[in-house]
Write a structure and sequence with these properties.
Radius of gyration: 25 Å
Protein name: Outer membrane protein with beta-barrel domain
Distance between the termini: 66 Å
Keywords: Signal
Shape: elongated
CATH topology: Porin
Number of helices: 1
Strand order of the largest sheet: 1-2-3-4-5-6-7-8
Largest sheet: 8 strands, antiparallel, barrel
Structural class: mainly beta
Mean pLDDT: 83
Order of helices and strands: HEEEEEEEE
Number of domains: 1
Length: 193
C-alpha cells in the first residue's frame, strides 16, 4: 500500500510540475524590436497599399485603389521597385471609371525619428496609366510620406499620406492633382548574403 501511495504521489507531483511549466500567451503580438535588420541592403520587400483613398481637386472626384508592390534594397534603408495601380474613380453624375497603371518607385527609410519597432519613410513614384473612360495614356507622379510599424520581425503595417499628379493627355491640358491617404502592409524578406 505504501508503494502504491508513493507511486501515486510521485505521478501527481510530476503532472503538476509539468503543467506548471506551460506558459500560454493569449495576447496577440503588436510590435517587434527589429532595428535595421529588415531594411538592410540585399533584402526584398513585397506587399502594398490595400486601402488608398484620394480626392482630386479639379474634377471633384473620389477614388479608391489597391497598389501591390515589390522592391529591392540597393543599400541600407533605400529600396527601388515597382507597383501596380488598380483603382476605381467615382465621378458625380457620370459613370464610374476603372483605372490601371504601373509605376517604378524609390523608397527611403529615414534614420532620424526611428524607433526599435518602426520607421518613417518617403516614397516617390512616376509611371503610366489608363482608364476605362478612354484610350488616353496618362502620366502619373506621386510623393508620399509614411510610417511602418513592425508587428513581427518581417511584417510591418503602414500608413501613408501623399500628393498625386496625373496628366491624361500631354498635348491637351487635362490634369488632375489631389491628396491621398493609405494603409497597407509590407513583408520584408532577407536576401542571400
Amino acid at each position: 500500500m505504501k508503494k502504491l501511495l508513493l507511486t501515486l504521489g510521485i505521478a501527481i507531483g510530476a503532472v503538476t510540475y509539468s503543467t506548471a511549466q506551460v506558459q500560454v500567451n493569449t495576447v496577440p503580438q503588436s510590435s517587434a524590436d527589429v532595428g535595421m535588420a529588415p531594411i538592410k541592403a540585399g533584402n526584398w520587400m513585397v506587399g502594398g497599399s490595400v486601402g488608398n483613398i484620394g480626392y482630386a481637386f479639379e474634377s471633384k472626384t473620389f477614388n479608391i485603389s489597391l497598389m501591390p508592390r515589390a522592391g529591392y534594397f540597393i543599400s541600407d534603408g533605400l529600396a527601388i521597385g515597382a507597383q501596380a495601380n488598380l483603382g476605381l474613380k467615382a465621378v458625380k453624375d457620370m459613370d464610374n471609371e476603372w483605372g490601371y497603371g504601373i509605376s517604378p518607385f524609390v523608397r527611403y527609410y529615414f534614420p532620424g525619428g526611428a524607433s526599435a519597432t518602426g520607421r518613417f519613410f518617403g516614397q516617390g513614384d512616376i509611371g503610366i496609366g489608363g482608364s476605362s473612360a478612354g484610350d488616353a495614356v496618362s502620366l502619373n507622379v506621386g510623393a508620399n510620406v509614411g510610417y511602418a510599424h513592425f508587428i513581427t520581425q518581417t511584417v510591418a503595417l503602414e500608413a501613408t499620406l501623399g500628393y498625386n499628379y496625373s496628366k491624361a493627355n500631354i498635348n491637351a491640358g487635362d490634369k488632375a492633382t489631389g491628396l491621398g491617404v493609405g494603409v497597407g502592409f509590407q513583408i520584408y524578406l532577407p536576401g542571400k548574403r
